[in-house]
UniProtKB/TrEMBL annotation:
Top-level taxonomy: Bacteria, Bacillati, Bacillota, Bacilli, Lactobacillales
Protein name per UniProt: HAD superfamily (YqeG)
Organism (species): Fructobacillus evanidus
Taxonomy, superkingdom: Bacteria
Gene3D superfamilies: HAD superfamily/HAD-like (3.40.50.1000)
InterPro entries, A to Z: HAD-like_hydrolase_sf, HAD-like_sf, HAD-SF_hydro_IIIA, HAD_2, HAD_sf, PGPP1/Gep4
Short name of one Pfam family: HAD_2
UniProt cross-references to SUPFAM superfamilies, sorted A to Z: HAD-like
Amino acid sequence: MPLNFLKPTYTVESVYNLSVAELKDQGIKAVLTDLDNTLLAWNNPNGTPELHAWLKEIKAAGIEVVVVSNNTWDRVEKAVSGLEVDYVAWSLKPMPRGILKVLKKQGLQKENVLMVGDQMLTDVWAAHLAGVKSVLVKQLVESDMWQTWLNRSLEKLAKKLIYSQKHPLIWHATFKEAVFARENDKN
């Protein structure tokens, strides 16, 4: 299939739908996540109560959460300052640089890591290049930072080429559903 490098391993409605039990069931020890419109709405720097509850639960279970963002160090540091998570800024996605840096620094095995993001052209592609599983999530808010409009336009075209009426893009409510759907697709 053309553009396989942009096709996510899993599709889940939100990063907050990745439950501790489901992550542990799949052997996930770290969730790497994009920042804007994935973990935080780009225009809501403090995050939601849902975000804070999810982070607390994930961290309490011993699963690492690391932000891997293309934003500047100042922007990312300010955004995550109240979240108590590690981060890599200027990661240059779709290059795998930021993801590989986290793997090396934390001593993580690729099969125990998920890269979660709202963009196929940056997050999903970078995950594939780094050799980790990708989770595409819906963007938290419909608006974007001005720099993202070109990616969104190209992504719409890529989605038309990758997905069809016969094989549509399906958003799953839980990670468990996404894993089940992927396993059934292989059969």
